[in-house]
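anyone seen this seq b4? input:
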Amino acid sequence: MSGLAVGEGARALPTTGPGRGAVGLGLLGAGAALAAGAGLCFGALPITAGELWQIAAAGPTTAPVGLETAATVVWSLRLPRVLLGLAVGAALAGAGATLQGVFRNPLADPGVVGASAGAALGAALVIVLPRAPVALAPAAAVLLDLIGVPGAAFAGAAAAGLLALRLGRRGGQTRVSELLLVGVALNALCGAGLGLLMAISDEVALRDLSFWMLGALGGATWPVVGLTLPVVTIGLALTLPLAPSLDALALGEGPAAHLGVRVERVKAVGLSLSAALVGVAVAAAGMIGFVGLAAPHLVRLLLGPSHRLGLPGSALLGAGLLVAADTLARLALAPVELPVGVLTTLLGAPLFFGLLLRDRRAGGAT
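predicted toks r here
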């Protein structure tokens, strides 16, 4: 039996019917595609669906007559931005769904183990220190310049995730309650580090850091997409084999172990993959809140509690939600562009409160 497989008893757990699940995933995929199409069409230069089709059919190296400017906008600006939004949204939502399964808690989100805060601290080091009134060793300055903001953010997320895993283990077991406490401590520590860096930063660095922490897709380029999209795709694909084990884990660690689940391995793999996905997402787009928390909730309402559907469904919904939010952020106060992280929080927080009140009225556990 595979280390991530479950016994026959776990396979008998109630799940959404295959017909409803396929239809639900199809609807979520169609929604993400529709959001992507809207992101390509709407903006300072409106592009109709027919013009977009002509541009796509002509390819990136040529442009239809009369649509030269529109083609440049699509291929150079909007398409990489939409693809990055799809990747980041899918990564955050997929990480959130995985963490909620590992912690058996629908309130868990990508920041619960400190990965988001670690990524923010790593990015802040690169943004602030080169301009700070402190003397950096030449080797340190070269290293910071070589790593860059995305590399430092990913390294910070990975370091925080690994540290949380290490400190959350006792007696050969990863204790969820202790891991949560470690995550709280790491978030506080990284927050203190961010405060210190802000205190010593100049106006330019402070502005750059503040904007980056609000989250935005405006820095999307083809090289960034080329690095982010494959890593997110691989990371999400690696979470899918965890689905049967996460379904069994919902019964409790003891029953899951009796069903053949290697509980400690599932927790370690799930937490590691989640931290990596969060690191990649934050490195590419900054801090974007509530996508990883709200998307899995909505998917459970649509498709039920099964992680076989919940993991891919959350990724699809997160992708569509973030691209739609980014399009709205570009249009809401045009020509001023809102940071998409601000908009996701403004829209996600009321939605989350609504879900809590709904579950409370229904007598739910959340």
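The chain has one domain: 8-361. Strands lie at 169-170, 173-174. kinda curious what u guys think
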